[in-house]
Specification:
The protein has helices at about 1-5, 10-40, 45-55, 60-70, 75-100, 105-130, 140-165, 170-190, 205-215, 220-250, 255-280, 285-305, 310-335, 340-370, 375-390, 395-405. By secondary structure, it is mostly helical.
Length: about 400
């Protein structure tokens, strides 16, 4: 536990982490509010799945530019600007919903705009972490980043589901704005130390081109992105179809849907705190294989089991698997590149992971129209297992060589 929580003893990282917890809690409340509201507006599995796509698709538009800008200007100022954007958009969505102006298209539009803020926030936040911790603390810091997301996933949906049941989705959207405002306060208190530059200032377009060239010639970074892409190609089915299954398959209300997410977040938090210990007992290969199998099991349970209790337990396993996958590959992405390109490399990784999740969510929504959610989820579960043998890049290449590139000991 001490090793896992070590980075929190550093004031700069602690502020950044607390801001992330607040922002992610608001985001998960927003996600459950938007997904549940869409199930009230339509029974279309595709439109419900498009809520997940609208959340993550902005990654294609802004993740790489945000990563480029994060390498050029003060990352603290960029994070503050992003948080102001989300506060304004979330408050506007709350007002429009209260006024009865939100239909499926408008809901997807606002969700997309909030997703743009989140897509900019993630690579900027992640590329700031190495400034605040020692190299040997990076796996713990990345796991804590996952805990920030997944503690929010445990708490946010449960609170969001309760608020929806009592006050409606507009209250959840308003609370999202408040949570991002609290993150803004935390960010304003961070006193970032200037980072000495060893190269002249760059311009955005040439810097983006340099990032793409670097990725093309870096086998370690390509390995991380290949593994992430293979995973999310099938993982998107669970995220896309969970609201539909919860409401129409399990017969749950908003509160029950929130509890399912809370179990998933609880499993993710447990995995985040236990990951440092697990790394001393299991190889990186073994951990990533277990993560893929655990997520496949959760997807299959959602497809075939009709008891909410067993579905919740399956989702807890899925949450643990999700955090393990993200923490391991995210650490590799961070440590496979030098400082001058870190923001851009992180953005490319985020683009593949979140952008791939957006595309796969939409595609699985289309498949569900033809096959139905149970069959679709079963196919996705089988697909997750096949990635263990069909992925062209081995997990050892991802984590092992990625860490060695950074010049620190290989802890794989």
């Amino acid at each position: 536990m001490a090793d896992s929580a070590g980075p929190l003893r550093r004031p700069g990282f602690r502020l950044l982490w607390l801001g992330s917890v607040s922002a992610n809690t608001g985001t998960w409340m927003q996600n459950i509010g938007a997904a549940w509201m869409m199930t009230e507006l339509t029974r279309s599995a595709l439109l419900v799945a498009l809520v997940q796509s609208a959340t993550t698709l902005p990654t294609f538009l802004v993740a790489l530019p945000a990563g480029v800008v994060a390498d050029i200007i003060d990352r603290r100022r960029l994070l503050i600007a992003i948080e102001i954007w989300v506060v304004v958009v979330a408050a506007s969505l709350a007002a429009a919903t209260a006024a009865g102006l939100v239909g499926p298209a408008v809901l997807l539009g606002f969700t997309f705009l909030i997703g743009m803020g989140l897509a900019s926030f993630l690579p900027t936040w992640q590329s700031s972490v190495p400034e605040l911790v020692q190299p040997e603390e990076m796996p713990a810091a990345m796991a804590l980043g996952g805990i920030a997301i997944n503690a929010a996933r445990a708490v946010g949906p449960a609170i969001g589901g309760l608020i929806i049941a009592v006050r409606g989705p507009e209250a959840v959207f308003a609370l999202n704005a408040v949570m991002w405002a609290l993150a803004l306060v935390a960010m304003a208190r961070w006193r970032r130390q200037p980072v000495a530059r060893t190269s002249p200032p760059e311009r955005v377009l040439p810097a983006a081109a340099a990032a793409l060239r670097y990725a093309r010639h870096s086998p370690d970074l390509r390995a991380v992105m290949a593994r992430a892409g293979a995973f999310v190609a099938f993982a998107g089915a669970l995220w896309a179809l969970l609201p539909q299954v919860a409401r129409h398959g399990l017969g749950l209300g908003a509160g029950g849907y929130g509890i399912l997410f809370a179990f998933m977040g609880g499993g993710a938090v447990a995995a985040g705190f236990g990951l440092a210990k697990a790394r001393t007992r299991l190889s990186s290969d073994r951990l990533l294989i277990l993560a893929a199998l655990g997520y496949a099991l959760a997807t299959l349970v959602l497809a075939q089991v009709h008891d909410p209790v067993f579905v919740a337990l399956g989702l807890a396993i899925g949450g643990a698997a999700w955090t393990t996958q993200m923490a391991m590959t995210n650490t590799a992405a961070q440590r496979a590149v030098p400082e001058w390109v870190r923001g851009r490399a992180t953005a490319l990784y985020t683009l593949v992971f979140q952008g791939g999740l957006a595309i796969s969510s939409a595609l699985w929504g289309v498949v569900a129209l033809a096959l139905g959610p149970p069959v679709t989820l079963s196919v996705a579960a089988v697909g997750l297992v096949t990635t263990l043998t069909t992925s062209p890049i081995s997990t050892r290449a991802i984590v092992g060589s990625g860490i060695r590139t950074a010049g620190s000991p290989n802890t794989a």
